[in-house]
Amino acid sequence: MPKDNFFEDPREQSLVKSEIVRKYFWAWAKVITSTLKKHNEKKIVYIDLFAGPGRYEDDTKSTPLLVLEAAIADKELSQMLVTIFNDKDPNNAHSLEKTIDGLVGIEKLKYKPRVLNIEIDSAIVDEFKHMRFAPTLLFVDPWGYKGLSLRLVDSVLNDWGCDCIFFFNYNRINMGLNNEKVRNHMKALFGEERADELRDKLSMLSPRDRELMIVEELVKAFMGFGYPFVLPFRFRNNKGNRTSHHLIFITKNFRGYEIMKEIMAKESSNLAQGVASFEYNPADRRMPLLFELARPIDDLKRMLLNDFSGRELTVKDLYEQHSIGKPYIKRNYKEVLKLLEADDKIIASPSASERPKGTCSDKVVVTFPKTL
């Protein structure tokens, strides 16, 4: 697969991708380590299977160095983190190893980072399948689609505390679905039956609907493997007129889903009524769109009144039940509930007059009228 001078110039999209991974790694590590301490466990793992050379040609740090620096800066994490980096290109692997050795404070890490130089294939997946993983964050960022597979993600995520982030070039997968030469790669990514069905469905779709269906089917494929919490995030090209990549997050735990949703919302380039687009579009800064016309908060008001008609539940339970697969974060739900309460559309206990001004805690009980 041609590399297209990928590491010559860090585009905005690459920097945002690295920031999402870095922020999630930090939040994930803090949650996991606090739990492990109670059980006297002392290891967590970060694996990057397509790590690259470590720096762009302008010396900007890529994801592996950002993760390691976060661990170096934290006394507790520095004694628990095991890192495994891989790149099948020997030049990249050598460069990464040299760059890691030159990091300030690298000696503070209890476990020396391992840098491998192997090709990710079905044999590696089979090996992973027979391993028991400590809590692991797996990051998969290949040049194209080779190495991406449902089995790869499933081989790691089976164990407790294991999550996956993978970043893929949408255009290559879009073209690959109609390319007989890479048919097996598409089957590995989507599943054999789903890949065949998808190929038939795509032929009559517009480019926009084609993209939506590809991402939708990929999300469904992971959910079909037993992972209920899957979050996609889209990256546009520099002109903002085409999708370049997608980042997909997979976890078994709602807490991880919640954390990543908050991170993706903050990294989104646009908000409409405080609701994130779950997209980074470099053109948004130059050509702001009228997202306010979408009125996503009004949509959420209508959904809640319909979906919870005649029910009584806490704010926390409502949020956890309703937010999966939707762009709203907890703050959006609380703002909408306060608006509905002010309009006498719902009853809250304690009421707004009994709570600190402007607040709506997780424990507030909300009662919805029964709609006719």
Break the fold down into its secondary structure elements and pairings.
Elements: H1 12-38, E1 44-48, H2 63-72, H3 75-78, E2 81-86, H4 90-101, E3 114-116, H5 122-129, E4 136-140, H6 150-157, E5 163-169, H7 170-176, H8 183-190, H9 192-202, H10 207-224, E6 229-236, E7 243-251, H11 254-267, E8 271-272, E9 275-276, E10 279-280, H12 296-307, E11 312-314, H13 315-322, H14 330-342, E12 347-349, E13 365-367
Helix pairs in contact: 1-2, 1-11, 5-6, 8-9, 12-14
Provide a short characterization of the protein structure.
Helix content is 43%, strand content 16%. The chain has 372 residues and is α/β, with parallel strands linked by helices.
| Helix count, DSSP H or I runs of 4 or more residues | 14
Cα-atom radius of gyration: 22 Å
What ranges have pLDDT less than 50 throughout 5 or more consecutive residues? 1-8, 285-294
**At the third CATH level, what is the topology name of the largest domain?**
Rossmann fold
Q: Which series of helices and strands comes N to C?
A: HEHHEHEHEHEHHHHEEHEEEHEHHEE
Global structural class? alpha/beta
Q: What best-fitting shape do the alpha-carbon axes yield?
A: globular
- The biggest beta sheet, please? 8 strands, mixed
Q: How many structurally independent domains?
A: 2
The span between the termini is 58 Å
Q: Tell me the name of the CATH homologous superfamily of the largest domain.
A: Vaccinia Virus protein VP39
Mean pLDDT: 90
Proper CATH architecture of the largest domain: 3-Layer(aba) Sandwich
In the CATH hierarchy, what is the class of the largest domain? Alpha Beta
| Helix proportion | 40-55%
> What proportion strand?
15-25%
Strand order of the largest sheet: 3-2-1-4-5-7-6-10
- Total DSSP E strands: 13
